[in-house]
Structures are given as structure tokens and as C-alpha cells.
């Protein structure tokens, strides 16, 4: 069916009054009300200034308050996707004004006061169509934000007009501030009061954008939103899971969700990203190897969100998070010795320099599946090295996502079946790599330098390091009179002319020539850089680069071959009591022919 969208600018009175037939709902997945004193004051003062200059009954100006994105849900409610902060604030402001107006005894009220009391009532509450009687308990705005005690506070304020003077929640604070601002301006300029109310109800304009379904409304919101964090798929997932739980389980779920959110933030991740990683795990379980990656919300929303209701979902998200605590923050996980393994950390650090995220999915799946198995640390290390070997070789030859995407998805499913999965990547003759290593794609340089560096040290590279050009990128043209500028530029970018170097030391070294920079190299705590500084070399030229090109490419090829061979031996290594399958025997023969075992 085609998507339908209704857009029709409306006054505050008209839009809020539409809640009589389709009440406003702030859904569970929205974030709590968060307007500050500053935002409340800005709204009030801007409206007051507008009234004084362009609005009121004698002028025809309009004041644009912004858009409101919503859709009509199955209960016939206007579910607000964007604009909940603004809508809520308008309800609180109108309630503050109404409270002030009705505080005057009926016998003393002016005709204007009675008029605006009658205008405000159907904008906040449902009223009897025949008698006009107001049902103060039947409010046209309801907040259902998950785990937000403010939902009841908002309802109480709109019903009673009273906010606890000691309450610290935003609803109470902002309602009291609206009252304070209205009282102050009423005293300072009493002749403007009713003009202000008129302008607020009739000349303050909103642009409601009503979609026919949630997906369309969320898409519109994502396109329009430029005011802070948009709603994430995880916000919607939280609400879906919450609504499915029995009442006694809801509190513990929210506590776990909050804990997950805080831990993920501390690990430089997000719940949204954890769901994305888990999607690849569940796809692998379902043997889904399609190269088209579905959106996270579409994936989990399928079959009425059935995947969200898996009993192990939250546990899986916490498990995945533990992996990223190690990768992103270098944490050590209790009772998981692999997280203290220096070489595993180095391989994960090198993988993190891979130019796209496809390395992450098989790592997540392998960890989730086998972290509690015997010999996990040893097998995880070999698996990571093999994965890095495959990714480096393929990216050097074909630096695109599609070079490994289909193979990664096959590998994901293979991991589910075995902790020694078969890598169905295209075989590459290692000797073909030599020119690609010596003059690599710029996005592969950090991977290659890490691979070299970690052969000579157990510590991770410092957090802030840069790619150092041993022969500087800026040189004097008379330094190499026999070389063309284009030749020099090309050779300078070869791997033989590059080192990992601490940022602070690199700044000190600047663009000096080798003799001047050697001193800074000796101060480096990076082993391969320090070794060059303490070497007997006194000069560095184009010939030096070419010679180091050969040494570096030979060493990297040797490392990659070693990683491959170690994994292959592990893959065919069976216990004495375990009889190899026909597939295993065929693989053993294949490995023997290739000289891997």
C-alpha cells in the first residue's frame, strides 16, 4: 500500500483540541521529558515579545513553534514520534495560565477571563459535548515513557494544577516556572495578559505531520531531526520487550537495561550497536548468508518482534558487550583469561584498524559461541590470527567491502557449526602480495605497521600514535638531484619508509632528515621504531626505502603464512578418541598438498 502523509499547519488551540477525538500519547520508547529552565524561559519570553510586536487581536502575525510528527496507532491515539517536549511544555503552560485564571472568584472574573477559560479547557481535557462539563481526569495527553515516574506527576499536574514545591522532576520545575513567569508578566504588564493568551492559542502555529504508520513517522523524524539524539531502534525495542513482560518482571528488566546502557556507554559502544552485532549472530544461527544486510529494526520487527522475545537476548547483549570492553577499553573480564592475553589483545587491536566493520561479526559470533569451552583462549587466538591473515591479504589485493563480504557471511554460519570453522575465502599465492605490501593502499598501512610492531613487543601501541615517514614528506628539491619529484613522492609512501611513532615525539621530530630524527626514535617505546633509532644507520635515502620494502614485505608474508599454518594444524588436530569425518579427512589431504601440515 502507498504511504500517506498529512501536513496541515494548525494553531495551538486547534492542534491540542484535536486530542478530543484522538488523544495524544507519548509512547514507551520516547525519552523522558527533559526541557530545562532556559528552554521554558525562551519559549515564554519569545511568545510574549511576539505578542507585543506582531501578535494579539489587532495584528495578524504568526509565531512558528515547529513540527510535530505522529501517527495514529491501533488504539486511535496520536502517538508522538517527534515534538513530545514541545507538546508537553504547551500543556504545562496552558495549565499554568488556566490555574491563574480560575483562581479568581467567579463573581470577579472578567469576560476575557471566562472566554479563555472556555478556550483552554477543551485543549487540555475532554469535555461533555452537550453540557460543556469538564472531566479533569480525562486528559488529552498521556505519557507512557518506560520507567518514568514523571508519567504520574504529569497527569497529576494537568488534573489538579498543583506541583509539589519541593519536587525536582522537570514536569514540576517547569510548571512552577511557567506559573512564575506568567505571574511576573501579569503584574508588570496586566494589559498584555489576554493578548498573550490569545496569541498563544491562535497565532502560535505548529506543523503537524501525520503518517499512516510508525515506520513512516520514524523515517520522517530521522530526516527532520536536528535537535539532539534521534530515537534509536533500541528505544523501540525496549518498549516492545517491556510491554510483553508480566508486571513483576518489568522492574528488573528496566534495571538490567539501564545497567547495559551505562556499561555500553563506558565501553564506547551503545545498545543500538549491540543489537546490530547480535543481528549477525542470530542470522548465523538461522544460516542466513544473504549478502544484503537488513536494517536492525526490520530484522527484529519481523514476525511481530518474535526475535526480541528470545529468553537469552539480554544475556547475549551483555556477553557481546564484554568483548568490546576488552577491544575498546582494554578491560580484563573476570574469569576470562583470554582477556589478559597480550597477543590476543594485539590481534584485536590490529583488526580494529581494518577499514570496515566486517571483521567484527565473526569475532562476536566465535566469542558468544565458544567463550566457555575448553582451550578457548588458545583456539580464539589462532582463529583471530587466521581471520586477520585473510582480511589483510584480501584487502591488499582488492580494497573493497565486497572482496570479503560474502565470505564473512559464510564464515559466520560456519562458526556456529564448529569452533574450527573452514574459511571459504579465495586462496591467494602469498608471493603475489609483495608489491601490494610494499606500496599498500593507504587504508591498509596501520594494519601492516601494527602487524610488524607486535612481532617485537607484548605491549599494545600507545593510544596516540601516528604514521611516521622516515624520509620526510617535505624535502628539499636539491637533496635528490637525480630523482624526479613524482618518483620521490611515490617512494615516500612505500611501507619501507613508514613507522608507528608516538604523536608527541613525532611533533618534536617534525620534518627533519634521518640524522636529526634518530634521537627521537631512540626515545620511542615502540620496539621497531626504537630499533631504527639505535641502529648504526647514519643516513636514509631512496635506496634505504627500497631495501626496507623487501625486508618488511618478506616479514609480513612470513607472519601471515605462520598464522595460516598454525590455524590449519589446529583445524585438523583431533583428539585420539575423536574419529575424523570424511570432510575432515578431505581437508587434511588438501592441507598436506598445500604444505600446510
UniProtKB/TrEMBL annotation:
Residue ranges occupied by any GmrSD restriction endonucleases N-terminal domain in the UniProt entry: 13-241
Q: What is this protein called?
A: Uncharacterized conserved protein, contains ParB-like and HNH nuclease domains
Cross-referenced InterPro entries, in alphabetical order?
GmrSD_C, GmrSD_N
Natural source organism: Ruminococcus albus
Q: Which residues form the GmrSD restriction endonucleases C-terminal domain?
A: 440-548
Q: Name one Pfam family in it.
A: GmrSD_N
Amino acid at each position: 500500500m502507498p504511504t500517506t502523509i498529512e501536513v496541515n499547519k494548525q494553531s495551538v488551540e486547534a492542534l491540542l483540541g484535536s486530542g478530543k477525538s484522538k488523544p495524544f500519547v507519548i509512547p514507551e520508547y520516547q525519552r523522558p521529558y527533559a526541557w530545562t529552565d532556559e528552554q521554558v524561559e525562551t519559549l515564554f519570553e519569545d511568545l510574549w515579545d511576539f505578542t507585543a510586536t506582531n501578535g494579539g487581536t489587532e495584528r495578524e502575525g504568526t509565531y512558528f513553534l515547529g513540527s510535530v510528527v505522529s501517527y495514529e496507532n491501533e488504539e486511535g491515539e496520536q502517538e508522538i514520534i517527534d515534538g513530545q517536549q514541545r507538546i508537553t511544555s504547551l500543556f504545562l503552560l496552558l495549565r499554568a495560565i488556566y490555574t491563574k485564571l480560575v483562581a479568581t472568584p467567579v463573581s470577579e472574573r472578567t469576560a476575557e477571563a471566562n472566554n479563555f477559560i472556555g478556550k483552554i479547557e477543551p485543549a487540555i481535557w475532554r469535555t461533555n459535548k452537550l453540557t460543556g462539563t469538564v472531566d479533569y481526569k480525562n486528559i488529552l495527553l498521556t505519557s507512557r515513557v518506560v520507567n518514568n515516574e514523571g508519567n504520574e506527576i504529569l497527569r497529576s499536574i494537568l488534573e489538579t494544577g498543583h506541583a509539589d514545591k519541593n519536587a525536582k522532576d522537570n514536569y514540576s520545575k517547569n510548571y512552577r516556572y511557567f506559573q512564575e513567569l506568567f505571574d511576573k508578566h501579569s503584574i508588570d504588564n496586566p494589559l498584555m495578559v489576554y493578548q498573550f493568551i490569545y496569541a498563544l492559542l491562535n497565532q502560535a502555529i505548529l506543523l503537524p505531520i501525520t503518517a499512516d504508520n510508525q515506520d513512516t513517522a520514524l523515517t520522517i523524524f530521522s530526516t527532520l531531526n536536528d535537535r539532539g539524539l534521534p530515537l534509536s531502534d533500541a528505544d523501540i525495542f525496549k518498549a516492545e520487550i517491556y510491554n510483553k513482560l508480566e508486571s513483576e518482571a518489568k522492574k528488573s528488566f528496566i534495571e538490567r537495561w539501564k545497567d547495559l546502557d551505562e556499561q555500553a556507554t563506558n565501553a564506547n559502544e551503545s545498545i543500538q550497536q549491540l543489537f546490530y552485532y547480535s543481528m549477525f549472530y542470530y542470522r548465523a544461527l538461522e544460516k542466513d548468508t544473504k549478502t544484503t544486510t537488513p536494517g536492525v529494526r526490520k530484522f527484529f520487527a519481523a514476525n511481530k518482534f518474535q526475535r526480541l522475545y528470545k529468553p537469552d537476548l539480554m544475556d547475549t547483549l551483555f556477553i557481546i558487550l564484554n568483548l568490546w570492553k576488552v577491544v575498546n577499553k582494554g578491560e580484563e573480564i573476570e574469569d576470562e583469561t583470554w582477556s589478559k592475553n597480550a597477543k590476543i589483545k594485539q590481534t584485536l587491536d590490529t583488526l580494529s584498524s581494518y577499514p570496515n566493520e566486517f571483521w567484527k561479526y565473526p569475532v562476536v559470533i566465535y566469542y558468544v559461541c565458544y567463550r566457555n569451552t575448553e582451550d578457548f583462549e588458545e583456539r580464539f587466538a589462532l582463529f583471530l590470527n587466521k581471520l586477520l591473515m585473510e582480511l589483510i591479504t584480501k584487502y591488499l589485493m582488492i580494497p573493497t567491502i565486497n572482496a570479503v563480504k560474502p565470505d564473512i557471511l559464510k564464515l559466520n554460519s560456519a562458526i556456529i557449526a564448529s569452533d574450527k570453522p573452514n574459511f571459504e575465502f579465495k586462496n591467494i599465492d602469498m608471493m603475489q602480495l609483495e608489491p601490494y605490501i610494499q606500496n599498500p593502499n593507504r587504508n591498509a598501512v596501520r594494519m601492516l605497521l601494527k602487524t610488524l610492531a607486535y612481532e617485537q613487543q607484548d605491549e599494545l601501541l600507545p593510544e596516540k600514535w601516528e604514521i611516521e615517514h622516515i624520509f620526510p614528506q617535505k624535502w628539499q628539491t636539491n637533496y635528490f638531484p637525480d630523482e624526479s619529484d613524482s618518483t620521490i613522492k611515490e617512494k615516500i609512501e612505500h611501507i619501507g619508509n613508514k613507522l608507528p611513532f608516538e604523536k608527541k615525539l613525532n611533533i618534536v621530530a617534525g620534518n627533519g632528515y634521518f640524522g636529526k630524527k634518530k634521537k627521537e626514535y631512540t626515545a620511542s617505546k615502540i620496539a621497531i621504531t626504537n630499533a631504527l633509532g639505535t641502529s648504526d644507520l647514519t643516513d636514509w635515502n631512496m635506496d634505504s626505502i627500497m631495501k626496507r620494502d623487501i625486508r618488511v614485505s618478506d616479514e609480513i608474508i612470513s607472519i601471515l603464512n605462520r598464522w595460516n599454518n598454525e590455524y590449519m594444524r589446529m583445524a585438523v588436530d583431533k583428539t585420539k578418541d575423536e574419529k575424523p569425518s570424511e570432510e575432515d579427512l578431505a581437508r587434511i589431504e588438501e592441507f598436506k598438498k598445500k604444505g600446510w601440515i
